[in-house]
Structures are given as C-alpha cells and as structure tokens.
Design brief:
Layout lengths: L1 H9 L4 H13 L4 H4 L11 H15 L6 H10 L8 H10 L7 H30 L4 H18 L8 H16 L13 H7 L7 E6 L5 H16 L2 E6 L4 H13 L3 H6 L4 H15 L3 E4 L6 H9 L4 E7 L17 H19 L3 E6 L23 H4 L2 E7 H4 L8 E9 L5 E8 L4 E4 H4 L5
Parallel strand pairs: 1-5, 1-6, 2-3, 2-4, 4-5
Antiparallel strand pairs: 6-7, 7-8, 8-9
Length: 450
C-alpha cells in the first residue's frame, strides 16, 4: 500500500493550477460557463478538488448561484463537508486567487497534467496485461492502441465556432473552386458524369460502394484511387481484406497499361504488351499508393495506420463485412449486425477526424435476386444496421447483362446513387471494360459509333 501511495504522489499534477481554477469560479461566476465543457472531475488530482468541481458542476446545471458560501452549503448538503477542513479550504481558494483573468491558462495546465496521468495509467494497465500473459499478442497490441487512442479522442473536443469565423473560410473555398476547371469541391473520381452527381469525393465523407459479387466494385474503387493519386500527388491508402497486394497491383497495371488482365495473369504477353506495361509501370512508380492486405484487419488497426500517414487524401476499404470491430474476434450470428454497425460508425468518425474521404465497399444480400427488377435498394445492404445512416453517399453497381444474357446493354453498368447528402440521387451509366477492369464515362470515351 505504501508503494502505491508513493506511485500516486509521483503522478503529474499541479495543485496550484487546480486551486486557481476553482478559486476563479468561486470569485467570478461568469467564468464558470467557460470552464464547464473543458474539464471533468477526474482531471483534478486532489480528491477534495474533484469534489468541489463536481458540486459546482451540479449547481451550474441547476442554474444556482455560485460562490464560496453557496458551494459550501451545497457540499454540506451532499455530505462532502468537513467542519474542520472544507470551510477553511474554500476560504483559502478565494484568498489565493486575485483574479479570474488567467483562468483559461490555469485550465490548460490542469488538462495537460490530466493527460499525462491518463497516459501513465494506460501504460500501467498495458504492462499488467503483458505480465499476465492472457490473450494473443495481436489482441494485446490492439487493446494497447485502443487505450492510447481513447486518451487522444477524449482530448479532441472541438470548440464551437462563430458563424463570422467560418464564413471567410467558406468564401475562400468558393473562390478556390471557381478557379478550377472542374468546379468540384471534392476529389475527382475520374468519371465526370458521376462527379457531377456527387460533387466528387469530399473530405470527411464516408462513401459506401455496394454490389453483388462480380459486379466490379473493387475495380471501380481502384479506378477512383488511381485517378486521385495521379491528380493530387498525395497518398492514397488501400486496405484490402479480400485480395492480395499482388492482385490489386495487377489490376492497376491492367487499367493503366490497357493490357488485358487475363494476359497479365497468365503471362501470355505480346511485344506490344510489354511496351505498354513498361510505360504504365513508370507512371505507377511515381504514385503514392499504399496497400495493406492484412485479412484480419480491425478498425483500430486501420485507424492507427492512417493516423501515421502524412499527406493522406483518400482511404479505400475492401470490404466492410470482412473487417473486425474494436474487439479481437469476429462475432457471428445475432451479434453480427451490431458489429457491422459499430464498424461503420467508427469508420465515419475516422473519416471526420482524418478529414479525408473514405470509400468503403460492401456486399449486398441476395434479396434483389428475388425481385423482377434486380437493381439494388438501400434495404439490400447486408447486415445493414447503421450503415445507411452513417454513410454520406451510398452507391450501388448494377449490370443488366450479369442477369440477362440477351441484354441490349452489354458491358454497360449503372451506378445507382441511392443516398447523397450533397445533392440529388439518381443513376449514371458507365462503360465497363472487363478485360482492363476499368470503368469509364460513356460520353467521354465511347461515341455513338463505337
């Protein structure tokens, strides 16, 4: 017990700053409202200071007058009053605080010390987990990352902004967009007709691209990633839980070189193919595309990796249902919908915190195959949970020739925009070139005579 007390005494704290914060609130009730959303009782190191802050917080919520007399009475009513200590301590807080003018500086000191104590506590818990040796190493690593990330997330509260502060930023953004030819607020997908519908890939958006297997959703996501990387020069992160990194690079090579994917897979290449491949490889070598093909990827893993990438502009995840949640295993059956909902919500939070668009691929249930019109709908989202709610844009891919061999629209895909927070819904027809795993806008590459 003595060792524990010694350890506690060594934890970072600043009693003078804590007392100055409390004293400021006691002598100036106006500054209370500035502090209430900045600190929590555990942010104070001394238990007595925690109790005083908690009582002031409760009084603030009830719109009660706050000074050393009223706070003392409230503490007595709450059973937190010591006749020999509390009254004199409240008087001391008032006496040692000449002014509340610097209260936010005192708050910052208390916050910093509280963060350091949280880090120390997390480090102790991580050490204990390692010493106990319970669980797999990967699970322990994920738990450790979660503890540190929880500290960061708890300290990332954003201040409310006045309209007058935000307006100049919006006007600057409008001016910047007006100077660009495409007039898009977001990153171009490379498909002009689709860009017009969704205004490009916008920062902090979670974009869900869903389809039945074989429709080409991975190819479309890779097309977008390739276009963004080429146009921006920034980094694009691709997390593939289904395909290996070699398979993905093969697709990118096929798309860029316009060499049949089947020839690349089999090695049956012509001399002209090698020339195209060499040119495409030169282009791809200059792009900042990062690929992670870990099939056991969790949301925490992805979040941690993305946070370490500088100059990141886009994240692609293939695909949602293969991911694991913050826990260390995939839960099945009745809990699976809850797990997928948790994953989608965490991914939306990640998109907002990283301030980049996140394209997440998703499987669809077989419900559409039971209908005469097999075009997907929002209700077809597999294990949907809150996916539809969390996503800013939901797009479906549909090819009529996939279901109907006699279809007049051979290799024509419909990109159905079922949800769009930035504009209208609807559909865009695209040319699908399966030999190159490539989607293109019909009016851009294919004329009426083709």
């Amino acid at each position: 017990m003595a060792n524990e007390d010694l350890l506690l005494r060594r934890l970072p704290h600043d009693l003078a700053a804590e007392q100055a914060v409390l004293g400021s609130m006691l002598i100036d009730a106006e500054c209370v409202k500035q502090i209430m959303d900045k600190l929590k009782p555990p942010d104070f190191y001394l238990r007595q200071n925690q109790d005083i802050f908690e009582v002031i917080h409760s009084m603030f919520l009830q719109s009660q007058p706050i000074d050393d007399i009223t706070v003392g009475a409230a503490m007595q009513k709450a059973g937190l009053y010591d006749e020999n200590v509390t009254r004199s301590y409240l008087d001391q807080l008032v006496d040692i605080t000449p002014s509340s003018a610097n209260v936010m500086a005192y708050v910052a000191i208390v916050q910093d010390k509280a963060i350091l104590r949280s880090i120390a506590q997390a480090a102790g818990e991580i050490t204990a987990m390692v010493q106990e040796g319970v669980g797999e190493t990967s699970a322990l690593l994920e738990a450790a990352e979660q503890k540190i990330y929880a500290i960061r997330r708890g300290q990332s509260a954003q201040q409310m902004a006045r309209l007058q502060e935000v307006l100049p930023e919006v006007l600057d953004r409008l001016s910047e967009m007006s100077e660009h030819e495409n007039h898009l607020p977001g990153l171009s997908t490379g498909l002009s007709a689709l860009d017009q519908k969704i205004t490009g890939l916008n920062n902090s958006d979670l974009i869900l691209l869903a389809a039945r297997p074989g429709m080409g959703k991975t190819s479309m996501a890779m097309n977008m990633a390739l276009n963004v990387a080429k146009n921006t020069g920034k980094k694009v992160a691709i997390f593939s839980l289904e395909m290996s990194r070699e398979q993905l690079v093969m697709r990118l090579l096929s798309t860029e070189a316009l060499v049949e994917n089947n020839r690349l897979r089999t090695g049956l290449l012509r001399e002209t193919d090698w020339e195209k491949i060499a040119g495409a490889a030169t282009v791809l070598n200059q792009l900042n595309i990062l690929i992670d093909d870990n099939p056991m990827l969790s949301v925490a893993d992805m979040n941690a990796k993305c946070r370490r990438i500088e100059n990141l502009c886009l994240v692609v995840v293939d695909y949602l249902q293969l991911m694991t949640s913050a826990g260390n295993s995939r839960r099945g059956g009745e809990n699976r919908q809850q797990v997928v909902s948790e994953i989608s919500r965490t991914m939306k939070i990640m998109a907002k915190e990283l301030n980049v668009p996140v394209i997440c691929l998703s499987q669809l249930s077989r419900a559409n195959e039971k209908r005469d019109d097999k075009r997907p709908m929002l209700s077809d989202l597999r294990e949907s949970g809150s996916i539809e709610q969390d996503a800013d844009i939901v797009m479906f891919l549909y090819r009529d020739d996939y279901y109907n061999e006699e279809s007049e629209e051979r290799n024509i895909a419909e990109c159905i925009i079922a949800k769009n927070r930035h504009g209208e819904t609807g559909k865009v027809k695209l040319q699908w070139s399966p030999e190159y795993t490539q989607f293109t806008t019909l009016d851009k590459r294919y004329g009426d005579g083709d």
